[in-house]
Design brief:
Pfam families: DUF4837. Helix content is 30%, strand content 34%. It is of the alpha+beta class and 325 residues long. A hairpin with a 2-residue loop joins strand 14 and strand 15.
């Protein structure tokens, strides 16, 4: 009798487990190019004020580039054809008219990984209001998803470099396509050849109180970059070196890198006494535990082509940084 009861209990548990597994939603792998959004919205809304509000937020010019390039590329899809494989894009922005005003962010709805933003409203104005009020959250949700995806792709073929860990106490994930161009006195210049030029990373450390926040912060960052460029980043001929473009003041933000406060600077660089220029993104990380400021910067030289995706790769690499404590 006891044996029969134990067997019945075991079969019941197994049955419940199988039922739970069978009810779990099986999702396909997501797809899509980096920074390319699917915009699911009626044609008449896309062509009117709602579409304009979407473009104002998601196709706004990206900071720190020499020419205007959109934050995201977008493909509009009418709801009537949003089915099957079309739903598998990694990033989806969906608008539904005729419902109570709302804003929602959801993960892995139709595929995995996937980030879906749903905006609803009974009228065009209510939809536009939801878009404008939540613009920062929308951008952050999509950008975080794309950073993770870019880092996942980078991790498929990582450069094996231990000197960064040994000398600077950091781990940085960058692809095998990059090479160590310079390693001197704990200064690193890491480069990758591209079709029209190069993408680059610089890493070095400073005394903890070298930079102070205040009205002169931008000036301090420019002075720092110019001094580093003169010593470490030579131009094509003798006496030329990388400096910060002075005609356009860099944009400065506060951010977090590896759970540490950091100053993010986006701007343009050029070469003193030479016709070369491009965008840069610089992070000065408050590494209080190690009593230092850690500086890591990405910059690109890619004349005559769009540079958004090159700079996005550099940012994804930088945001993979882990500092040993």
């Amino acid at each position: 009798m006891k044996n029969a009861l134990v067997l019945f209990s075991f079969m019941l548990i197994l049955s419940c487990g199988n039922k739970k597994s069978s009810n779990q939603k099986i999702l396909s792998d997501s797809s899509g190019n980096i920074n390319n959004l699917s915009i699911v919205v009626d044609n008449n809304l896309w062509e009117g004020n709602v579409g304009e509000a979407i473009r104002d937020v998601l196709a706004a010019p990206l900071d720190g580039l020499p020419q205007d390039e959109p934050l995201f590329s977008m493909s509009q899809i009418p709801p009537s054809v949003f089915s099957g494989f079309v739903t598998h894009n990694r990033t989806v922005f969906k608008v539904e008219k005729g419902k109570e005003p709302s804003f929602k962010i959801a993960s892995d709805v139709f595929a995995r990984p996937q980030k879906l933003v749903l905006v609803t409203g009974k009228t065009d104005d209510e939809i536009i209001e939801q878009i404008q009020e939540n613009a920062g959250k929308i951008i952050s949700a999509f950008k975080s998803e794309e950073i993770r995806e870019k880092q996942r792709r980078i991790a498929l073929s990582l450069h094996k470099n231990n000197t960064l860990k040994n000398n600077l106490g950091i781990i940085l994930n960058f692809p095998t396509a990059y090479r160590i161009a310079k390693e001197k006195d704990n200064f690193y210049w890491i480069r990758k050849d591209i079709t029209t030029g190069t993408t680059n990373l610089m890493i070095y450390e400073l005394p903890y109180n070298y930079i102070t926040k205040g009205d002169s912060l931008v000036y301090q960052i420019i002075k720092l970059r110019d001094s580093i460029g003169e010593v470490h980043i030579p131009g094509p001929t003798e006496g030329t070196y990388m400096i910060t473009e002075k005609a356009y003041a860099p944009a400065v933000f506060e951010t977090i890198i590896d759970n540490k406060p950091a100053i993010e600077t986006k701007g343009l660089w050029d070469v003193k006494n030479a016709f070369m220029s491009g965008p840069f993104i610089n992070y000065i990380i408050d590494d209080e535990v190690n009593n230092r400021l850690l500086v890591i910067e990405g910059f690109a030289f890619a004349p005559s082509v769009e540079k958004r995706d090159y700079m996005f790769e550099l940012e994804a690499i930088i945001r993979s940084l882990k500092i040993n404590e």
